[in-house]
Amino acid sequence: TTPLIIDTDPGVDDAFALALAAASPEVELIGVTTVFGNVPLADTTANALRLRALLRREDVPVAAGADRPLVHPQPKLSSAHGSDGLSGARGTLPEPTRATDPRDAVTLMRELLEAADQPVTIVPIGPLTNVALLLAAHPRLKEKIGRLVVMGGGVNGGNITAAAEFNVWSDPEAARRVLVDEDVPTTLVPIDVTHRCAVSAEWLAELGRTSATAGALVGLTADYLATYRRILDLDGIVVHDAIAVAEAIRPGLLAAKPYALEVDCSHGPGRGGLVVDRRLQAPGPENLRIATDTDFDGLRAFLFERLSSLGGA
Ligand code: BDR
Ligand code: CA
After folding, report:
1. Model ipTM?
2. Does a cis peptide bond (omega within 30 degrees of 0) precede residue 11?
3. pLDDT mean for each 10 residues of the chain (313 residues)
């Protein structure tokens, strides 16, 4: 089993990502770190604690990280996930029986990496602030990271602005540090791929009937469903972050290509966007691949199979 750390800002699709990791024997979830993003840090952390209780994984430490971007303030929060980040339904989840870990996110990641006897996969599914701080402060620990599977970015335009995807836009300087300046083996899972793996309202309803735990998870989707109806005219949701976890569970599940990449850290309309060099003659980087394609029906079936095994009925 591969040791796994998820760095997250729950977030409805983050909740699906955590549940997928908890339901997958190929990985061992050894830590969860939280970051500001969809909602403020206090909310993302409270959500992570409740989700950990729902998934009956209170053995896994949850540590809070950055409450703001590295350099410039986040212009606004996401309105996509409802008032508390879980469609206003956090209170339907079980009360946590364990508190937040006393360590901050970077310290927890450092200690988990130092203690690991095999390469650790880190899956950042929120703004990249915590991971940028980790790599900047503890460069020698890069060798303990097997790979990063990052949900973020848009190759052909964004979702929060015309140019930018939400996670990269929330802290472009951190994203540049992680994706461009550091040299850790990374697979980037952009919205170009995640949007092709939307799940329908019917799929969700069917999943919700498989167990009480799955039912509680599906119970977090109301506002997020409304968002996707509004922004993509979809009768369903996009579970972006769960796709990154799926790739971490099954390396190579997503086809990916090495592309040279820049993150736009300017203060113009391109801020937080990716500049991807897709010219044939452009030399690709050794360590960064961008996911491009997969068997989307197969992936939806995989998500359903795993999430319907959560049990707890
Ligand atoms: C990303 O933004 C967040 O709102 C989601 O949780 C996901 O991580 C998609 O752009
Ligand atoms: Ca997220």
Report:
1. 0.99
2. yes
3. 98 98 97 97 98 98 98 86 97 97 98 98 98 98 98 97 97 98 96 98 98 98 97 97 98 96 97 94 89 98 97 60
Catalytic, 138? Answer no
DSSP state of 180: I
List C-alpha distances in Å: 273 to 8, 78, 180, 257: 20, 17, 13, 19
Instruction: Please provide the size of the chain in residues.
Output: 313
The pair of structure tokens assigned to 168 is 């990269």
Burial of 58 (0-12, 13-18, 19+ CB in 10 A): middle
- pTM summary value: 0.97
20 closest CA partner among 254, 219, 306: 306
What single-letter amino acid sits at 11? G
- Of 123, 167, 171, 197, the one to substitute when testing ligand 1's pocket (max ligand atoms within 8 A of C-beta) is 167
State how beta strands 27-34 and 62-64 pair.
parallel
